[in-house]
Specification:
The structure holds 2 protein chains of 2 kinds.
Chain A lengths: L1 H36 L1 E7 L5 H14 L3 E7 L3 H11 L5 E3 L4 H6 L12 H4 L13 E2 L2 E2 L2 E2 L9 E5 H6 L11 H14 L5 E4 L4 H12 L10 E2 L4 E2 L4 H15 L12 H9 L3 E6 L3 H8 L5 E4 L11 E2 L6 E4 L6 H21 L20 H11 E2 L4 H4 L3 H9 L8 H8 L6 H22 L21 H7 L1
Parallel strand pairs in A: 1-2, 1-3, 8-11, 13-15
Antiparallel strand pairs in A: 3-14, 4-5, 6-14, 7-11, 7-12, 9-10
Chain B lengths: L2 H50 L17 H7 L2 H32 L7 H13 L2 H11 L5 H8 L13 H29 L3 H9 L4 H28 L3 H7 L11 H10 L10 H45 L1
The chains are: A alpha/beta, B mainly alpha.
Keywords (chain A): Signal
Pfam families (chain A): SBP_bac_1 (PF01547)
InterPro entries (chain A): Bact_solute-bd_prot1 (IPR050490), SBP (IPR006059)
Chain lengths: ~475, ~325
């Protein structure tokens, strides 16, 4: 019996090993055969709104270039994944940016794209596309620009179904906070509480962006975290504090959907789409999300309401939405082919045809899938305004910024704003002041360590808030 | 003793030595893979995290910015770090008290010989142990959300007039984390307790019964004293596992609002991998320093608990040895 058991066991083991070898050989054979004909490029995308557009682009590219296959992967934790890949020396051939360019340059991980982006090609892009530590380093190109620098400003989406149901028209769209509250109360009353005036979301970054943008209508000299008149970091401003208080008022007065304090943007979009809220505040990319992901078409866009209805703005070129290329890619030629193809087609296919945002390239063809696309484009052009970028004036500030920010406990005021809205912080001003003071202290302390950087690099006397700060303005100061 | 005898003895000694050597050699051969894995995946990262903690480093590129004890200095003066340590302590103590205590009650009930369907109940209570924590976090987020199941029930039975912010109020959020963490570990603690309960000889219960002891006195004078050694191990395991709350906290509250529920492991992750949730920059060196402190914290907890629970046993053992020695003399 024992002998039979051993025999069966040995036989099974041998069969298992043989079958494994056999299947390995087949797989290897297949892939070798495939490898002979097709080169596979790996590409990581972190922007959910570009997912569909990239799929279309890749499909079209592969049809025209049967020898190249693009293996696209969506990365939900992009920073963690890219940093891990960087430390392991296992980068994809291409990825959408997440880690700062200066950091990538330090380890020589990113490819110079000057060969593709000649001066003529660069001229085909919107003004403000090329900037230090974003798309360029020392004047050379290191990123294939995707979105326009004049984008990403927050706007207000309104639900036309709700408007129709409650007999509201576009003339009722509120421009000031007071008007918003009045209309909000009307919406609550007329819908018997079934519809909330606004649904918001809880990530710290979104809260910081919203209060900063709304705040520029009150304190225009602080577009983000710097005051370019005084040349110091500044996160405490009357505009930001009042904007945060406005958000809390909305929640406390029942004008904001209560789940707003614990949901993400996707859930907020869903709430808006099903008509549970009349308004949604978000970026330009949400048009595509509403149209494609939520299959909701009956909406319009307007500027955010501000304290007195004054104009607000967002600093243009807030991030360099671009494709980076691995400096060690084994398929340099194929990557170049893809980027050259993308130069001709990407902005039309990925941005205009899907409505996912505004393309970095000028004069792009294509057919937006929803009529509101042009309204969004107009609003973004109006609201995303170039402000001084100290790195353009003195490239040394890139390292300086990194060093001074390393001394900070928190990177901004977003989480404090969330804490305040949820009722966990009583003295908002004191909490923001702490962060503000920490930033100023770290900034001034680091200035002593960087003799090549001075406070003057952050002072722009020729800057007027709300007026675009163009390249010639830097020359004026030089 | 004849010469042959001496030679024979030395031959057999040599053979024995060779055999022992061979055995030892094979033991080392079998140990090698495990030792390699240990050095590559445990010892090396631990040593390197100590090295990184003395540098300002983003995790990419060469280690060239030596800051000495700068990272430690910054950590020890950081209110955010101390808050995360406090949240971790609350979580560890909460899950240990609730999880270990609850599991003991459950194990005593399920150890009852007369109870029907014991296997079914044990499987039900063990199910959360094998469920992915991240999924538990997401589902519990929906259950305890403002518009979640719990608030709906409480509103429907008129126990509350407005939803309770379970996840956005720091007090409630920490309580919810503790409750869910305890529930998640209940099954495994229950299995440990059951193993301990089943190792108690039945004769002791029968004797207690003959002496007229009821349920409570049997529990107090027989069961619990005999479970003491097991209890020490279970509590220690629970304390140490409470330090790793990362996946639950990340998916349930993400450390919010305003870092009020950020545990030490989430603090480390935020600074090591997320420029948004850290200080605006990724700081692997700073996070490594926090990791070293977390390691020390775990070590100290284990030592304190070890001394408190095993100290008496060790003293007893020493006493016994001394007494035995005394008899010899």
């Amino acid at each position: 019996m024992k002998k039979i058991s051993w025999f069966i066991f040995s036989l099974m083991t041998v069969l298992l090993i043989l079958s494994a070898c056999n299947s390995d050989e087949e797989t290897e054979g297949d892939s070798e055969e495939e490898n002979d004909d097709v080169v596979t490029l790996t590409f990581w995308n972190r922007y959910p709104e570009l997912r569909g557009g990239f799929e279309d682009l890749i499909e079209q590219f592969e049809a025209e270039h049967p020898g190249i296959k693009i293996e696209k992967q969506e990365v939900p934790e992009p920073e963690t994944q890219l940093r891990t890949a960087l430390s392991e020396g296992d980068l994809p051939d291409m990825w959408t940016n997440i880690v700062e360019l200066a950091e990538l340059m330090e380890v020589d991980a990113v490819k110079n794209l000057d060969e593709i982006f000649t001066d003529d090609v660069k001229d085909q892009f919107q003004e403000g596309t090329w900037f230090e530590n974003g798309t360029t380093a020392d004047g050379s190109v290191y990123g294939f620009p995707l979105a326009s620098p004049r984008s990403k400003a927050m706007i207000m989406y309104y639900n036309k179904d709700v408007f129709d149901m409650l007999g509201l028209t576009e003339d009722d769209i509120p421009a000031s906070w007071e008007e918003f509250k009045e209309l909000g109360q009307r919406i609550i009353d007329e819908s018997s509480g079934a519809v909330y005036p606004i649904v918001w979301n809880n990530p710290g970054w979104a809260n910081e962006q919203l209060v900063s943008m709304m705040g520029t209508a009150i304190t225009p000299e602080v577009p983000w975290q710097e005051n370019y008149k005084e040349g110091v970091p500044q996160v405490l401003s009357e505009g930001k504090v009042e904007s945060a208080k406005f958000l809390k008022d909305l929640l406390d007065e029942g004008l904001m959907a209560p789940q707003s304090v614990e949901i993400g943007l996707g859930e907020a979009e869903a709430t808006f789409s099903v008509g549970q809220s009349a308004f949604l505040w978000s970026g330009d990319w949400v048009g595509r999300q509403l149209f494609v992901e939520s299959e909701f078409e009956n909406w319009g866009v307007a500027p955010l309401p501000t304290k007195d209805g004054n104009p607000y703005y967002f600093h243009a070129g807030s991030e360099a939405t671009s494709i980076r290329v691995d400096n060690e890619t084994e398929h340099e030629e194929e990557v170049k082919t893809f980027l050259e193809y993308s130069l001709e087609h990407l902005h039309e296919v990925v941005y205009v045809n899907t409505g996912a945002g505004l393309p970095a390239k000028k004069e792009v063809g294509g057919e937006p899938p929803f009529e509101q696309y042009n309204d969004i484009m107009e609003l973004e052009n109006e609201l995303a305004i170039p402000v001084p970028k100290p790195a353009e004036f003195n490239p040394e500030v890139v390292e300086f910024n990194k060093a001074y920010r390393n001394k900070l406990e928190v990177g901004g005021i977003g989480d404090v704003v969330v804490g305040y809205i949820t009722g966990n912080i009583n003295d908002l001003e004191a909490e923001i002041e702490k962060i503000d003071q920490d930033m100023k202290d770290a900034f001034l302390e680091t200035l002593d360590e960087f003799p090549e950087v001075s406070q003057d690099d952050y002072i722009y006397p020729n800057w007027e808030p709300l007026a675009p700060y163009t390249i010639d303005k830097y020359d004026e100061l030089r | 003793m004849s010469k042959n005898n001496i030679n024979g003895k030395s031959d057999s000694n040599t053979k024995l030595k060779t055999l022992k050597k061979k055995k030892a050699m094979w033991a080392y051969i079998f140990l090698v893979p495990q030792i390699i894995v240990f050095f590559v995946f445990s010892a090396y990262p631990i040593v390197m995290s100590y090295v990184y903690s003395f540098y300002e480093w983003t995790g990419i590129g060469p280690l060239d910015d030596f800051v000495g004890l700068g990272n430690y200095q910054q950590l020890l003066t950081s209110p955010r770090f101390w808050n995360s340590a406090l949240v971790s302590i609350y979580y560890i103590l909460g899950t240990t008290i609730l999880g270990v205590g609850g599991a003991l009650i459950l194990a005593i009930i399920l150890n009852d010989q007369k109870l029907n369907g014991k296997g079914f109940y044990r499987a039900i209570y063990f199910l959360p142990v094998v469920t992915t924590t991240a999924i538990v976090g997401i589902i519990m987020g929906n259950i305890f959300g403002i518009n979640g199941f719990v608030n709906q029930i409480l509103l429907n039975v008129n126990l509350i007039d407005k939803p309770i912010p379970w996840l956005t109020d720091p007090f409630f959020a920490v309580i919810i984390l503790i409750v869910i963490g305890s529930w998640k570990g209940l099954g495994i603690n229950m299995v440990y307790w059951l193993a301990g309960l089943q190792s108690i000889p039945n004769e002791l219960y029968e004797s207690a019964q003959l002496d007229g002891a009821g349920f409570w006195s049997t529990l107090r004078h027989v069961t619990l004293p005999l479970l003491k050694p097991m209890a020490a191990v279970i509590i220690l395991l629970s304390l140490v596992s409470g330090i790793n709350a990362f996946d639950l906290v990340k998916t349930l509250t993400n450390g919010g609002p305003n870092f009020a529920t950020e545990t030490m492991d989430l603090f480390i992750y935020n600074f090591a991998f997320s420029s948004q949730l850290g200080g605006g920059q990724v700081r692997m060196g700073y996070a490594s320093a926090a990791g070293v402190l977390l390691g020390l914290f775990t070590f100290v907890i284990s030592m304190i608990f070890g001394a408190a629970s095993f100290g008496k046993q060790i003293t007893n053992l020493r006493g016994n040895k001394r007494r035995k020695g005394g008899v010899k003399v």
